Amino acid sequence: MNSKKTHIVIIGNGAAGISAAESIAEINHSEVSPSEITLISTEPGAVYYRPMLSEYLSEESLPKRFYLHSIDWYTENKIRLLQETKVSSIDRESKTLTLSDDTSLIYDKLILATGSYNFVPPMPGAALKNVKNLRTLEDAEEIRSIIKAGKKAVVIGGGLLGLELGWQLLQKGISVTVVEMMERLLPRQLDTEASALFLEKVLDTGMNILTGVGTEAILGEEAVSGVKLSNGETIPADYVFISIGVRADVGLAKACGLNLNRGILVDGRMCTSDPSIFAAGDCAEFDGVNYAIWPEATAQGKVAGINATGGNALYEQTIPFNIYHGMNLRLFSIGDAGSLGDSEYEIHRHRDGDNFEKIFAKNNQVVGGVLMGNISRSAKLKKALQSRLSLSEYLAL
Ligand SMILES: Cc1cc2nc3c(=O)[nH]c(=O)nc-3n(C[C@H](O)[C@H](O)[C@H](O)COP(=O)(O)OP(=O)(O)OC[C@H]3O[C@@H](n4cnc5c(N)ncnc54)[C@H](O)[C@@H]3O)c2cc1C
């Protein structure tokens, strides 16, 4: 009988990596021959809730429930955690990883959960001092150490992350201008009507919003002094934050020859083109999409973890949704929230003061919607999409 334990190595201690580790640890509890788990991360410390990083910029200390597990949790679950360690290469033939300290590690099954990085365009001035982007706790610490009340910031990118960043800076007494290339805010999450309402709320905070204009260059000698827009205008700035989207971190996968598109291609079992390697989260691409959101990463991580132990779990595509709480408003948007224009849908619309609800259906089936202000029906709306309910069935919930 072969009593050798399966060694599962997970690269990445974020949402997907930890979800994989949790599911393997749970399976291990009831196994006669549990798998060995090694989790490797370039970041120090235990896994944390990345979406809380923006909030931390304006808080005195780390928000409550920032860390998802204590460091002891890893030991208790027999997970060997290699912190501040980078995997530099994967040799698929010998199933060996080379680490940044030049040591090597052999795996039986490998899970890539390397996440994504913020895209920084090759724009003049992008490398100047005080041009920042927010991805890690280290980035947040660095930003906290430089920002000072009374200064001016430009945020390039008016998506939810950029706006949330702007909102936190505003609360630190910094004047904020957000520059968005699209004609309106959140065009992927909101239709024109909801987007106009949302803009009103954002402007009420005192944030300056410029839409329909690009950024040509970041100006300054050593440190930032301003931003030059595509309309020729210049805005003064002490800090510039770039928040124009993420790119899947596929570096390791590409170098070892796995099949890629924008992300690492995976099947419904989260298996890559190599049967011994799984991928999950922001770095993976399933069925042509990668939403790069937290719930997708945890759901995929779980499937990858189960299958790495020899199980047979299948991933069901996440219905993308955004939930936002800040800027004195609450916002929930899910699915196709009117991307084709009102005339293409059956619509339920209700407005009562600051509360706004607009639900979109096609072929007698709810396909998406927006809730602003009171978002208490968000779970029901999610259910309507998951269960393919009609508008009237949703309204009766
Ligand atoms: C500021 C901010 C706010 C956000 N807000 C929201 C939100 O409100 N809602 C939402 O759904 N999503 C939000 N997101 C996105 C969400 O955080 C990500 O979708 C999620 O973190 C992806 O998880 P992941 O495990 O795939 O990758 P990550 O969390 O990025 O983890 C990747 C891990 O891989 C490690 N790694 C990478 N390469 C190597 C290597 N070569 N060797 C060793 N380790 C490596 C990294 O150190 C890291 O630990 C936000 C993201 C940010 C940055």
Give a structural overview.
The structure is a single chain. The chain has 397 residues and is α/β, with parallel strands linked by helices. Helix content is 24%, strand content 29%. The chain has ten helices and 25 strands. The strands form seven sheets. A five-stranded parallel sheet has the order 3-2-1-7-19. It has a five-stranded parallel sheet with strand order 9-16-10-11-12, with helices on one face. The chain has a five-stranded antiparallel sheet with strand order 21-22-25-24-23, sandwiched between helices. Strand 13 (215-220) and strand 14 (224-229) form a beta hairpin. Helix 1 (15-29) runs parallel beside helix 8 (294-308). Flavin-adenine dinucleotide (FAD) is lined by residues 11-17, 40-43, 50-51, 53-54, 86-87, 113-116, 134-135, 161, 249, 252, 281-282, 292-295, 297.
Report the end-to-end length measured between terminal Cα atoms: 56 Å
CATH-derived architecture of the largest domain:
3-Layer(bba) Sandwich
Largest sheet: 5 strands, parallel
Query: Are any ligands bound, and if so which?
Result: flavin-adenine dinucleotide
Number of spatially distinct domains: 3
Radius of gyration: 23 Å
Structural class: alpha/beta
Count of discrete alpha- or pi-helical segments spanning 4 or more residues: 10
Low-confidence stretches: none
CATH class of the largest domain: Alpha Beta
Read across the widest sheet, the strand sequence of neighbours is 3-2-1-7-19
How would you sum up the global shape? globular
Average of pLDDT: 95
Write the CATH fold name of the largest domain. FAD/NAD(P)-binding domain
Percent of residues in β-strands: 25-35%
